[in-house]
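fwd from M.: "can u put these together and see what the complex looks like"

so here's what she sent:
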Amino acid sequence: MTTNREKQLKTLGSRKFSTMMMLPTLITMVIMTVYPMISTILYSFTNFRLLKKNTQFVGFQNYANLLSNEYFQSAILVTVKFTVLSVIFEMLLGFLFALYVDSLKSKKVQTVMRIFLLLPYLLPAVTVALSWRMMLSANYGIVNQWLTDLHLPVYNWFSDIHTAFGMLVVIDIWQNSPFVFLLLYASLQSVPKDQYKAAKMDGAGRLSTLWYITIPNLKTSLALCALLRTIDSFRIFDKVNLLTGGGPANSTTTITQYIYNYGIKSLKFGLGSAGALIMTVIVLVLSSLYIKNALKTKGI
Amino acid sequence: MKKIVSLLLAGTMCFSLATGVFAESAIEAPALDGGGATLTLALRSGTYADVIKKCLPDFEKAYNVKTEVLELAEDDLHSKLALDATNKSGAYDLCMVDGSWMAEFTANGVLANLTELGYELDDDIIPATTDICYYEDNLYLAPYYGNVTVLLYNKELAKAAGYDGSNIESLEDILKICQAAKDAGKNGFIYRGDTENNLVVDAMPILLSYGAWVVDEDNNPTVNTPEFKEAMNFYMELIATGDAEVKDDLIASVDSGAGAMGIGWPGWYVPTEDSAADYCAISGKAAADSEAFNANVYGVWTIGVTANSENKELTAALLEYLMDPEVQKSTVADGGVPCRYSSLQDEEILAQFPQYKVVCEALESGVYRPVIEEWTDFYTILGTELGNIVNGVKTVDEGLDDAQSQLEATLGM
């Protein structure tokens, strides 16, 4: 028989063990996340400029400067526009791909399709950007050669103010639709087949089945996909920086590109930190919609 | 007798081998032994790094050191050097520095004092390229790669308009060639519109030809002066004949004849007698009867030793070796452009690469970008407004007035 004292000691030991097991993760998190985050918050209230020694506390001046700057405001708009467009089209295409592949009867064909559809997502963003730059080159690009052969007008895709933004959206959709496809395709496998059989027996058409069975069953996955893609699209940097550098005439300057141009390149880390925090707040606000919804669903 | 002949032959062979080796190697018996130490070089990627990499094996062997080369794009190189400068012990020993970073780097102790390390520049180096290397009478950098803006043009398209490299005498001539190319269904003038820095640098020779400049003698911004606006109006007319392209496309365009010309750098293109493109110096004259200004902008890549290097003496020895006239001359075949008379005026080299005559002249009278600590902010602001102007978002007056007021605010005026 164990006494109360022994029980207490056992619990204490188990707690200590749990704490010890969690400690490495906690330490890593503090070093990798908490410390940089606190530093960023602190820097954002200073005029910290790398190499300069006279760093001073400037209160909300960085935030005020950024929010009143027409190019930063334009960068927010460009980022939001980019996020909305790319997420909508990626969701739509990914969903259509998932439905199509799921509808294929041959498992072998399904596997082959899955591999081909996933390829763009597996490529590093830099490779994607450089490949597209070559394909869309005004001189030796294959796209312009096709257009010329078809007697269609050709464009200088990344230097033309009318096409640069659109091309970035297209490239992002091309690369990231497979991510949506993968997640939704996996979710489709878990939709109970009985529901489809019952719908068929009741004489439901394809659209009704999609609307009343498939979409409701994928609701959580769709929301999660949208959230993940929103966060990722909002942070877009590599493709913009490699393909347009934010130009022409700021038409593709996203928040991250703005921070790079005006904060990082000039070594103004105070200003850059404030920009990064403003971006984080916007992403959090957007994410909170999903989180709020998720909490509601779970009745919390 | 046979023995004597054999001995004589063997002796002659040994002697010739020895003299041959010493003649080829620029390294005399080294005073330092690196003891297997590793020197890290942070270099600008491209030809600039390639030519240095080719020279390293001899140095490694002679000094018993290893070298690691980090090749970086311009912006990356700038920020990595700045970030590393805040560390007590530096990750890089030898670094490549753009002339326009000099003010920022010397004011903040990024570079080691080469004079204190016992290195001095010799008289063979083109004097104008050394101005940027000194700070308070001490040497901090050595001019390694003689980059200076030149006019890259397609020979056929220029010929079709009645020109060759020798008679492009003013901006008017440039416009005529570009207009003729446009009329023939090609692109005329091609400029780089991808980054703020490129937008500014490509417009600079045009500004200079009109007697305009981005700052005055006291480094106050002067981007909305009448000359500046006149130059920009001409620039708008010129770029209307062509298109904005990235560097690689610009070179491909001019080489293939899809475009007539653009502002380039010697490191981009190696013209030969048979090549479709060539380059010439920019005359600095707006019209045939205008005043000729210095219109070639320096983009000289210099090399220096980082202040926090743990191998300063060895790195200074490496710098001295890389700056050696013979070593520098050996890089020409691989695209090197030394800032040295002994290389750029060498008859053998000129016979093979006649364009170096033009480069040498341009290097003798180039113009430095402003040596101010805030240069990155400066070109970002000006480049943004130039981007607005060339893309029709703002008029020349609006864009330049906005740039002036932002620059004045940034420079605390």
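replying to her w this: Chain B has a mean pLDDT of 90.
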